[in-house]
Design goal:
The protein is an alpha+beta fold. It folds into three domains: 77 residues; 65 residues, Dna Ligase, domain 1; 117 residues, D-amino Acid Aminotransferase, Chain A, domain 1, CATH 3.30.470. The protein has nine helices and 13 strands.
């Protein structure tokens, strides 16, 4: 299979060579505007599938949603999130979860100090104060977990002054897990869910924040979940959230379990990091390797699903 790896200009030395050794592949770096370059690539007919790793967020100055929209308009077979679920807000996720009976950490997007007390009055402490979209643990520190109204105000002002607003939500005291869900090309209504992993935090920490996420000197562990019943529960809630959101390609759900054993999704990340080097593995890499088929199985699922979805789009347009 001929694979076109799409990446932004700031590659930081990234290469998928170790992962795609069994494929005929080429990496193409994209800069804006992207549609003309993608159209030119399509005309060359050199690739069977486009492995899209462009994940720029709305407030970042590199390609992301515009790449996905161009791939859809050109009807090219591509991996990853579609435009309908590229960068959903926490509030959108919370609404979808609630409508489908899925536990989700309750919270609000708060824009002003005047709204802070009003919107959060029905939330239970401890609370978390996050970036409004909170990708990559941006802006999160140990102090992001707050126990009092005074602490809440301090953290709200810190986040909102930098990012325009803040996501304030209930902190679920307990354990944290990741669930990785991938399209099943043989039946898109039954996505494949990998064995989940548990985040084992360093002593004195009970959530993932920037100080430990990006400091590789801090002892931190992902541990495969072994409890058979818990595995099934985590896989079920991840699968349901993936389908309810209309996610495509693959996605990672972050899940907390409280002291009663109840599960609450924190988010579904439709553009979770993959293909990190072994010393930098992210949760998705670990979960891919928990599966006997490893990366071979992962690539088979996402590449074949990309082609299946391309055919579905073509059939829909032909009507």
């Amino acid at each position: 299979m001929r694979v076109c790896v799409l990446y932004d200009e700031e590659t930081y030395g990234f290469t998928p060579a170790a992962f795609l050794k069994d494929f005929d592949w080429e990496m193409i770096t994209l800069s804006r505007p992207v549609k003309n370059k993608l159209a030119a690539l399509a005309k060359e007919n050199r690739f069977d599938v486009y492995f899209n790793l462009c994940d720029g967020a709305a407030d970042e100055d590199y390609p992301g949603l515009d790449v996905v929209q161009a791939l859809e308009e050109l009807n090219l077979p591509f991996t990853g999130a579609s435009s309908n679920c590229y960068d959903p807000t926490r509030e959108e996720m919370q609404s979808v979860a609630g409508a489908n009976g899925i536990g989700f950490a309750r919270g609000y997007n708060v824009k002003t100090s005047d709204d802070l007390e009003k919107l959060t009055s029905d939330l239970r402490y401890p609370l978390m104060v996050k970036h409004p979209r909170s990708y990559s643990s941006l802006g999160m520190t140990r102090e992001s977990r707050v126990e009092t109204a005074d602490q809440l105000r301090v953290q709200f002002e810190r986040i909102s002054s930098e990012f325009g607003s803040a996501r304030v939500e209930e902190f679920i005291v307990g354990r944290e897990f990741n669930v990785f869900i991938v399209d099943n090309p043989d039946d898109l209504s039954k996505p494949f869910v990998y064995p989940p992993t548990e985040l084992i935090f360093p002593e004195g920490h009970d959530f993932w924040h920037a100080d430990i996420k990006w400091d590789y000197s801090v002892p931190f562990e992902f541990r495969e979940v072994k409890d058979a019943k818990l595995i099934l529960r985590l896989q079920d809630v991840g699968r349901r959230m993936y389908l309810a959101m209309g996610a495509t390609g693959y996605g990672r759900c972050d899940v907390r379990m409280n002291e009663k054993g109840e599960l609450f999704i924190l988010e579904i990340n439709p553009n979770g990091g993959i293909l990190y080097l072994p010393e930098e593995y992210g949760p998705a890499d670990y979960m891919i390797l928990y599966d006997a088929d490893g990366y071979d199985g992962f690539f088979d699922r996402i590449f074949r699903s990309a082609i299946v979805r391309q055919k579905m789009r073509a059939a829909k347009r032909a009507k």
